[in-house]
Amino acid sequence: xxxxxxxxxxxxxxxxxxxxxxxxxxxxxxxxxxxxxxxxxxxxxxxxxxxxxxxxxxxxxxxxxxxxxxxxxxxxxxxxxxxxxxxxxxxxxxxxxxxxxxxxxxxxxxxxxxxxxxxxxxxxxxxxxxxxxxxxxxxxxxxxxxxxxxxxxxxxxxxxxxxxxxxxxxxxxxxxxxxxxxxxxxxxxxxxxxxxxxxxxxxxxxxxxxxxxxxxxxxxxxxxxxxxxxxxxxxxxxxxxx
Length: 242
Description:
Elements: H1 8-11, H2 19-35, E1 41-45, H3 51-55, E2 62-67, H4 70-79, E3 84-87, E4 99-104, H5 108-111, H6 115-127, E5 129-140, H7 142-146, E6 151-155, E7 159-168, E8 173-183, E9 189-199, H8 203-212, E10 215-222, E11 234-241
């Protein structure tokens, strides 16, 4: 997994990274409505700053969040005090509780350093699920990582952000460099730098690994409803234990 984000966690939401979790919250509410019931509890692996918990906070779901970054966990606890947040690795954390739903969101599956590591995360998600529970995650395809081959500049009154990335097709790997200059209360600017590395894998390998973990029902759909699944840049997986 990538490094533990350090000081980047303090400005993660300010720089706009929390928006994806809010989009996922909309999807999850629709899923709850389709099922006709909300889960009593959710385990959020790689929970980040707890934006998902905040977005779903009115639903009275008991949340447990796990993240490798102590900074992210501090932000999550501050943002959503009703949740339980733990510093830990999504692949190896062990909790006594079983959950009706486990989620792994915002490219977190792509952050894993190898396919073996990703498979460990799948097994750990399965280990923490109650019978009949759901494991939901998103995954950037090769087409999705190809979109990282760009330079983006964003300016607001609070910060200037430079976002530049590169995709390495042979390794099916992309890296992105985030550099931000954030205005402080004294009028000076603080420089923040973060490198993120992500990998993608064939969807057939993902499905095979999930089946080996015991997920009998696996549905993958484009995250963007305007995309066809063969051309999707990001997939949304819903997996259920038999």
